[in-house]
Amino acid sequence: MVRNWNLDWEASARRAVQGLGMVAAAAGIGVWAAILLAPAPRPAPPALVAEGTGGTDVSPVAGWFGGGPASRIKIVPSGLIAAGQYGSAILAVDGGRPQAYGVGQPIAHDLTLVSVLPTGVVVSQGGQETELLLPTLPRLDAIMPVPSASAPAR
Fold first, then answer.
1. Residue 39: inside a domain, yes or no?
2. How many distinct structural domains can be found in the chain?
């Protein structure tokens, strides 16, 4: 049996190009199908930051420092760790950068952090104590708890 080794190179090249074209077309169809049929992304949850801290009442502290508005110190609590004598608070004093203060640590001249409560802080000056409340954030209804694996599905 004698084989004819004279191949038609032109026809073979056409078939190879045609095969590569079909593979490229199939890959393109697959990619575009994945892009176009992908599920739409879910909307992001609302921001977890309040729009403003609201009006913090500093009038009890203002009385300690005299009558004029120039002599008042404004303290805004922004974070609390209520842990008894080991508690700490993040306070912004006179519009400055918030800093962490521990219970018993001086905040300003003759002004000391006495205690940290779950709702605010107690400061003392000259033996007079005043409670400053933490601004409340609006309730977020968009965040839902994830059911545990042991809970029955609804």
1. no
2. 1
